[in-house]
Amino acid sequence: MTRVVIQPSYGLPRFRRHWTQTLDRTVAFTGLADALDGRELADLRALHPAGEAHFWGASAAHDRRMAQLGTGDVVLLTGRKQVLAVGEVGLVLRNPAFARALWNPAPDVCNWDNVYSLLALTQTRIPYERVWELPGFNPGDNFMGLRLLDDTKAAAVLSGLGITTATSGTGFAVG
């Protein structure tokens, strides 16, 4: 079963900067190879042969949820009461040095320890109301914090928003 994560990603100014750095454009990760171990670099190259990808991350508080994600899972990136983008997860890393290399955070802010690449990314403008209409969701839910959905809600999101993944063999698409 494809896992689905809902992740706030645009509320704070630093997240909007991160968005611009790694979601509005791809990043040539080969230029940051010093922050990756040999296996991580090989895995990224296998998934992203062009040597570049979109990236997003999460803090250490989300280690357990992030450890459950894998290639082909789906992330809904939210902000401004909308799903702003939908992505298909590539490689999930727990690598604070790589996160610092990607986003260069200020020393006094919460740093991301987890990073994931995206095999595909589609910018969207899906209002929360459309998600609230799906089975298992509640009107008024503002999706605070990184949320790993259970199988029932994940299936409702995939079906209800018309999301298919490349790793499932049907190609990445958002209906």
Query: Can you list the strand order of the major beta sheet?
Result: 2-3-6-5-4-1-7
Uncertain runs? none
Helix share, percent: 25-40%
Number of domains: 1
Shape: globular
Supply the helix-strand structural class.
alpha+beta
Please state the average pLDDT score.
95
CATH class: Alpha Beta
**H/E element sequence:** EHEHEHEEHEHEH
Record keyword descriptors for this entry.
175 residues; 7 strands; 7-stranded mixed sheet; globular; ph1033 like fold; alpha+beta; 27% helix
Task: Give a description of the structure.
- It is built from six helices and seven strands, in the order βαβαβαββαβαβα.
- It is α+β, with helices and mostly antiparallel strands.
- It has one domain (4-160): Roll (ph1033 like fold).
- A seven-stranded mixed sheet has the order 2-3-6-5-4-1-7, with helices on both faces.
- The longest helix is centred in the N-terminal third of the chain and has 10 residues, at 13-22.
- It is globular, with a radius of gyration of 15 Å.
